[in-house]
Design goal:
Blueprint: H1 3-10, E1 33-43, E2 61-69, E3 75-81, E4 84-89, E5 102-108, E6 113-118, E7 122-132
Antiparallel strand pairs: 1-7, 2-5, 2-7, 3-4, 3-6
């Protein structure tokens, strides 16, 4: 099955996707959903960055995370399901370089709540989280 037919099938049929009939760009389930948008905030070591944990809108899905900090340290995700929280470290447990931009992806399933932490006190320069749905990347 070619990619156009697969997408058409996923969207519930319709015409072929061609320049005359392009992919829908809004309200289609393909556009990423903004889940978090933090900018220039002071963060404490090993404390959740987001005031409220993220809950996925469509599951299973992918959370795409873009982050930059002003102090080298490890960046972590906390995944809570059924009251059990696991803290997992991105970047193979290697410190993020200060003032550099990093991007990570992780899977999210029904019942998960998600938050992020940094291992040292830092100024969070930017944190953007998007929910990638419909199996697109």
């Amino acid at each position: 099955m070619d990619i156009r037919r697969a997408i058409r099938t996923a969207l519930g049929g319709g015409n072929d996707i061609t320049p005359a009939n392009p992919l829908p760009t809004t309200d289609s389930g393909i556009t990423p959903l903004e889940k978090a948008n933090e900018h220039n905030t002071a963060e404490l070591a090993n404390v959740d960055i987001l005031a409220t944990a993220l809950i996925p809108t469509n599951t299973p899905c992918l959370f795409r995370v873009m982050v930059a900090v002003d102090t080298a340290g490890t960046f972590r995700v906390t995944i809570t399901k059924g009251g059990n929280t696991q803290t997992l470290i991105f970047n193979n447990n290697v410190n993020l370089t200060a003032n550099c931009l990093f991007m990570f992806d992780h899977l999210v399933h029904i019942g998960d709540t998600i938050n992020y932490q940094h291992s040292v006190n830092t100024q969070l320069l930017v944190l953007r989280v998007q929910e990638i749905v419909a199996g697109t990347q």
